[in-house]
Design goal:
Structural class: alpha+beta
Radius of gyration: 27 Å
Helix content: 25-40%
Length: 503
């Protein structure tokens, strides 16, 4: 049943239901299960959708609304609310509207028409509601009630502990709910399963994107067995979901890619009406841009899914987004890996990049060790090759080097190098990004004796002195080739390359 709603001064027959908020304001809506209210004297609070306080996830929607009203600090308490909702707060003659932290379904309003809706038929005169602003439904003016803060005074450990606290109990809200979990073979979805793992038994796992390698299907079936879930494959273009009567929830994890969401330039900033309505100051543009990008993030698919589901995003909480923003500026913090390692580290046993389970990885390593011993390779070189096997890098057995998390240094394993022999490195990733490749050979005159090929493009070794950047779109291939035979330590080290992945 559609999530669509419209707030105006009259009933709209396009909607199945309507709720008279006050003499001047009517909420038109399509799903009666989504509407919850709580009132006390002259104060009232309405939720269309669902919400829960991540510090009190056992409360029902009505229980959460009661807490918000009785605690009498609604804008402070909204900081810790997750969900997919609009909330209307009425006190005496005042009436204000709030959305969830990222406005999963965008909300639009027109001061001229005195209308709020999430389905635009006419764009002219309508402005999108920034989720960190409230909308006064008497004056149709907006006012900021939440601002992202810098926590420079707090240590990384303190911020990580706060993130854990705000995430660890969210699963409790869904224990008695009809929950569907989208699955794809990547770390975004590993993190989603890590957070929800205590409550996944008999929930639904949906594999919608059927990839060419079959990893989504393979690991989707494995995860369904591990967590005792109901497995469903949904073909592209089909919308036949396993829906129950009442409210159906769909869980996603699309807010954890902070860097991409923060850095993208939002075209709506150039909208003159938006600039006028919000009176955006130049010093606030970056954070306002981030807030608009939160709304745009997977907007189309969220709108499509909201015809059937209310959507759950673990990070769709203002304070969680604030903490992740601060952590992401420190030490190359990777929120998905942190969540996996904190809540369900055993999921690291599944290598989505290579499509292997832990058992398959172990069998490969045993075979690799037999081959290494047969080739009389040194123990240090064996250790390097085995460690590489467990990473997203892969190298040919004639290479040696050093490996860090997202960085590798390579050079020929033996001093004696032969003309035409290929030394190969490969890196696979399910994310786009940049790769930095640096060489250390300074003699430009002899540089043509070592040819380096990167994704089919040829260079000489000197071209990498000082470093070069390459765009990473899923896969990186590097090949090194000598044009003459050599038997010296200096020529062995001449082809040394450092490859660093920048995500």
């Amino acid at each position: 049943m559609s999530y669509n709603f419209k707030i105006s001064d009259e009933k709209d027959n396009e909607y199945k239901y309507n709720y008279q908020i006050n003499k001047e304001t009517i909420l038109n809506y399509n799903n009666e299960d989504y509407l919850n209210t709580y009132s006390n004297n002259k104060r009232m609070i309405i939720c269309y959708g669902y919400c829960f306080n991540v510090k009190k996830p056992n409360l029902s929607i009505r229980g959460t609304l009661e807490y918000l009203l009785e605690n009498n600090q609604i804008e402070k308490d909204l900081t810790y609310l997750n969900g997919h909702f609009i909330i209307l707060y009425s006190e005496n003659e005042k009436l204000k509207l709030y959305t969830d932290a990222s406005s999963i379904t965008p909300v639009y309003f027109s001061k001229e028409n005195r209308v709020v809706c999430n389905k635009l038929e006419e764009k002219k005169g309508y402005v999108i509601l920034n989720p960190n602003y409230n909308l006064d439904l008497v004056t149709y003016n907006v006012s900021r009630f939440f601002t992202f803060k810098d926590y420079d005074e707090l240590s990384t450990t303190m911020l990580e502990n706060e993130l854990i606290t705000l995430l660890k109990n969210q699963y409790k809200y869904f224990e008695d709910k009809s929950l569907n979990v989208i699955f794809q073979a990547d770390n975004y979805h590993k993190a989603l399963f890590a957070i929800l793992s205590p409550t996944l038994v008999h929930k639904n796992i949906l594999v919608k994107k059927i990839d060419s390698k079959g990893f989504n299907t393979k690991f989707g079936e494995i995860f369904s067995k591990e967590f005792t879930m109901n497995y469903f494959e949904i073909q592209e273009g089909e919308d036949e979901y396993p829906l129950d009567n009442g409210i159906n929830f769909l869980s996603r994890n699309n807010l954890s890619n902070y860097n991409a969401i923060y850095s993208k330039k939002n075209n709506d900033l150039e909208n003159s009406l938006l600039e006028t309505v919000y009176a955006i100051k130049s010093e606030d543009e970056k954070k306002f841009n981030f807030e608009l990008n939160l709304i745009d993030n997977y907007r189309v698919s969220n709108n499509d899914y909201s015809h059937y589901f209310l959507i759950y995003e673990p990070l769709n909480v203002r304070e969680i987004l604030n903490v992740v923003m601060n952590l992401s500026k420190r030490d190359e913090f990777k929120s998905n890996l942190f969540i996996i390692n904190t809540f369900k580290p055993s999921l690291n046993f599944y290598n989505f990049t290579n499509g292997n389970t832990l058992r398959e990885v172990n069998l490969d390593l045993k075979q690799e060790n037999l081959e290494l011993k047969g080739n009389s390779i040194s123990s240090n070189n064996q250790k390097f090759l085995v460690n590489v096997k467990l990473s997203n890098f892969s190298v040919s057995q004639n290479l040696d080097g050093k490996l860090k998390k997202d960085e590798i240094v390579i050079y020929p394993a033996k001093q004696k190098v032969k003309k035409g022999i290929l030394y190969k490195l490969e890196y696979k990733s399910d994310q786009e990004g940049l790769v930095y490749i640096e060489g250390f050979y300074k003699n430009e005159n002899n540089a043509k004796r070592i040819i380096v090929t990167v994704n089919g493009e040829n260079f000489n070794i000197f071209d990498f002195y000082g470093g070069r950047y390459f765009y990473l779109d899923g896969k990186l291939n590097v090949e090194i080739k000598y044009t003459q035979d050599y038997d010296s330590l200096s020529w062995q080290k001449a082809s040394t390359l450092k490859v660093k992945v920048i995500k």
